[in-house]
């Protein structure tokens, strides 16, 4: 039976349309992060450090003994994450303790940010004063110096991204400071998914449609993270430019040529390394206008991937 013309779209076109809908919904998710703390602890400085458009995401609440009220509770209820900022040179106040207890009791996602770690002459002694209290918050605690830019991008930013969960793409699209770590996470999570799929595939090439679909989604997510406005025509253009001469099969051939083994590890390494390479090509394209990577760079990515999969340092 013949198919009627115009009734079926090519696989990639359907994939692009579906991916666009999912990504647009994801990037439109509102992100609300409340920064709370007493006067002079660095709340405004922290918000300003996040970028010129930070007020779109971050809101401010100055805490004191008089305003621990329904107004604060409503702001907390509306927030996806609460950042409680304290001063490393001072003891934890009763107001901050009340706030932290409220957040704990209500299971509200929060982080405790100890600012001004550059000021105390002996930080260890200073923190020892509140050690018995702070140790329960260790998984949620970050020591920073906003003034000296200590532990902001390497510690605080990744933790905020992690806590924002399914809103991280929206966060990166709104504030460039979150862009690179979100893109890196998108690449690695897609690569791991593709590695798992390739490893369990029984027939050569049977996994290719799924791997390709995941890579299309990855490229479009990276585009959105870089602030690209994407509709169907723009999405096709992006995929053609990045995919031109840099298809998954091309990368796979380069990877296979240096793999020392066959089987699950080899197939997973091809899928993982190939996906990372495509992701880095996409990042380079949006960052610098470079649309492909050299064979040497692909080999370097493959070698690193094999070491990761085999647990070799």
What would you say this structure looks like, in words?
By secondary structure, this protein is α/β, with parallel strands linked by helices. The protein has 2 domains: 33-169, Rossmann fold (3-Layer(aba) Sandwich), CATH 3.40.50.300; 182-310, no CATH class. It is 57% helix and 8% strand. It has 14 helices and 5 strands. It has a 5-stranded parallel beta sheet with strand order 2-1-3-4-5, sandwiched between helices. Strand 3, helix 4 (94-105) and strand 4 (110-115) form a beta-alpha-beta unit. Helix 9 (179-200) runs antiparallel to helix 10. The longest helix has 25 residues, at 264-288. It starts with 10 loop residues before the first helix and ends with a helix.
Provide the descriptors you would attach to this structure in a database record.
Rossmann fold, alpha/beta, 2 domains, 313 residues, disordered N terminus, 5-stranded parallel beta sheet
Summarize the structure.
Helix content is 57%, strand content 8%. With 313 residues, it is an alpha/beta fold. Helix 4 (94-105) links the parallel strand 3 (81-87) and strand 4 (110-115).
């Amino acid at each position: 039976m013949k198919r009627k013309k115009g009734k079926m779209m090519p696989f990639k076109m359907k994939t692009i349309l579906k991916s666009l809908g999912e990504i647009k919904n994801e990037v439109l998710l509102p992100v609300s992060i409340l920064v709370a703390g007493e006067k002079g602890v660095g709340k405004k400085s922290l918000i300003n450090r996040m970028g010129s458009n930070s007020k779109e995401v971050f809101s401010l609440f100055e805490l004191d003994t008089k305003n621990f009220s329904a107004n604060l509770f409503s702001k907390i209820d509306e927030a996806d994450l609460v950042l409680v900022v304290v001063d490393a040179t001072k003891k934890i106040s009763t107001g901050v303790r009340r706030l932290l207890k409220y957040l704990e009791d209500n299971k509200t996602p929060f982080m405790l940010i100890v600012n001004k770690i550059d000021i105390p002459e002996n930080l260890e002694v200073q923190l020892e004063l509140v050690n018995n209290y702070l140790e329960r918050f260790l998984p949620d605690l970050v020591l920073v110096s906003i003034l000296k830019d200590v532990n902001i991008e390497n510690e605080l930013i990744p933790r905020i991204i992690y806590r924002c969960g399914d809103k991280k793409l929206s966060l990166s699209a709104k504030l460039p400071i979150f862009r690179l770590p979100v893109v890196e996470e998108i690449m690695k999570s897609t690569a791991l998914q593709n590695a798992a799929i390739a490893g369990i595939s029984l027939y050569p090439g049977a996994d290719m449609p799924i791997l390709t679909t995941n890579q299309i989604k990855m490229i479009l997510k990276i585009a959105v993270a870089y602030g690209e406005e994407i509709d169907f025509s723009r999405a096709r253009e992006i995929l053609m430019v990045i995919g031109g001469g840099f298809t998954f099969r091309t990368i796979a051939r380069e990877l296979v040529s240096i793999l020392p083994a066959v089987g699950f590890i080899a197939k997973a390494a091809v899928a993982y390394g190939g996906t990372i390479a495509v992701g880095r090509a996409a990042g380079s394209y949006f960052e610098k206008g470079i649309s492909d990577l050299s064979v040497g760079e692909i080999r370097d990515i493959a070698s690193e991937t094999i070491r990761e999969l085999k647990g070799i340092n």
